TrEMBL record:
Species of provenance: Corallococcus coralloides (strain ATCC 25202 / DSM 2259 / NBRC 100086 / M2)
SUPFAM superfamilies, per database record: NAD(P)-binding Rossmann-fold domains
NmrA-like domain boundaries: 3-245
Pfam entry (one): NmrA
Taxonomy, superkingdom: Bacteria
Protein name in the entry: NmrA family protein
């Protein structure tokens, strides 16, 4: 059985659909907090298991002996390690065959504040003795393209990335890599640094956005504290604003860039240029 936790999230949905193209629905299970979001999968034969990371007792029936599990990292920054620990403990008790985890690029040496919980989770998985795969995902290109509308409205993209380069990929591409690992062989106890084939700087991103949209957009680089304050000014809670600004600072140091092309090797095709994602987002309006 293939079990995907956090399956109703943006990445998880792509993973489940990818699995359904490779294996019978009866071999796929989703572990979700809200089963209503998985009704369509249930109708197709997918097992739906209700779990709550904050209630470890709900995880007792989430996994079975010999399962292949994908732990998609939780989205509550600051609460993720105890949540992940509960999943790891349940997986160990169940005797799962493989535990794959969506981590962050260079988790073991990254200076990003986001990396701390990922590093701790990786260490807990290693200590559990479960055969593992760490899918160290880089930045999603959607982190930028989902915010195109305000960029075009105000003609400005702010950040603290300077001329640092980021190698993004789409959620679909990261999901395809997860599916390849889950359904493949020889991945036990491997660590994969995953990122797009090509990188870009935020000034380059803004220039391409301006070119494709036909509207003037400029990149304004700010000190980290000022960028966080700007994010808070548009409603981003301070802890998350600080995290985003810190990530941009890490980007400026090259911590979100990778040239290994491991992602494209796993999925069997080159990753799409970032300009493609801009074009797709502009078409969607």
């Amino acid at each position: 059985m293939f079990v995907v936790t956090g399956a109703s999230g943006k990445l998880g949905q792509f993973v489940v659909e990818g699995l359904l193209k490779k294996v019978p629905a009866e071999q796929v299970a989703v572990a979700v907090r809200n089963p209503d979001k998985a009704k369509a999968w249930a109708a197709r034969g997918v097992q739906v298991r209700k779990v709550d990371y904050d209630r470890p007792e709900t995880l007792s029936g989430a996994f079975g002996k010999g399962d292949t599990v994908l732990l998609i990292s939780a989205n509550e920054v600051g609460k993720r390690f105890p949540q992940h620990s509960a999943v790891i403990e349940a997986a160990k008790k169940a005797g799962v065959k493989l535990l794959a985890y969506t981590s962050i690029l260079f988790a073991d040496k990254s200076g990003l504040s986001l990396a701390g919980e990922h590093k701790a989770t990786e260490e807990a998985i290693r200590a559990s003795g479960i055969p593992y795969v760490f899918l160290r995902n880089g930045w999603y290109v959607e982190n930028y393209t989902e915010h195109i509308a305000p960029a075009l409205q105000y003609g400005v993209v702010q950040g603290s990335a300077k001329d640092g380069r980021v190698a993004t990929a789409t959620r679909q591409e990261y999901a395809d890599a997860a599916v390849a690992v889950l359904t493949g062989t020889g991945h036990e106890n491997q660590v994969y640094e995953l990122a797009g084939d090509a990188s870009f700087s935020l000034p380059e991103y803004v220039a391409e956005l301006s070119r494709q949209s036909g509207k003037p957009v400029k990149y304004v680089d700010l000190p980290v504290a000022e960028f966080s304050a700007a994010l808070q000014g548009v409603g981003v809670p301070k802890p998350f604003a600080d995290t985003l600004a810190d990530a941009d600072a890490g980007l400026s140091r090259g911590e979100l860039n990778d040239t290994s092309r491991t992602l494209s090797r796993l999925i069997g095709r080159p990753t799409a240029p970032f300009g493609n994602a801009i074009g797709a987002a502009l078409k969607q309006g």
